Amino acid sequence: DGGITQSPKYLFRKEGQNVTLSCEQNLNHDAMYWYRQDPGQGLRLIYYSQIVNDFQKGDIAEGYSVSREKKESFPLTVTSAQKNPTAFYLCAIAQGAGGYTFGSGTRLTVV
Amino acid sequence: KQEVTQIPAALSVPEGENLVLNCSFTDSAIYNLQWFRQDPGKGLTSLLLIQSSQREQTSGRLNASLDKSSGRSTLYIAASQPGDSATYLCAVLLNAGGTSYGKLTFGQGTILTVHP
Fold first, then answer.
1. Least CB-CB distance to B44: which of A50, A90, A94?
2. How many CB atoms neighbour CB A28 within 10 A?
3. Tens digits of per-residue pLDDT, B80-104?
4. Which of A29, A50, A79, B95 has the most crowded Cβ, counting Cβ within 10 A?
């Protein structure tokens, strides 16, 4: 995964529960991103962070929260306010002129 | 708002054929364009990255072209193999004041199946 580690690979959430997806990178890059992928809808941006202690909402931020306390880590919390959380979640880093690199993803399912 | 469209949505070909995947975008003020491959249940693997000043990039059997003025890119796969079967995604990065740290906009992908 080019130095990006997402965990867990599979995650199950009960109704009303908050869950946190992990994204760690050892490539020393500033910009990190979270995308959601649904069948037939492509990838949509949830949140992104270009520097430690700062982050911005993407196109579908409602029901999600993030933190960026360390350069290496950008965890995503799916809150109970997200009514349709079942999806494949992908974390990415921006390598400047080198383009983007993605992690292997976390598949979240509501049970 | 940037919109990215990929045609066809799905493609099925016999092994050995040369094929072309198409990507179009509405805002030509892009910083770069990137082609990815995604296998079922996996993350995205970068195939080719074309900067806005470039016309094409090549890697092995893959060749990607970029025509910024017309808002189009093509991914050419030569001598296709069953192992090429995957979803191919095109993504563009808008030129946000010269920075490369904007957000990618993705097409919905082309599902390619190569039959033995």
1. A90
2. 9
3. 999 999 999 999 987 665 555 577 8
4. A29
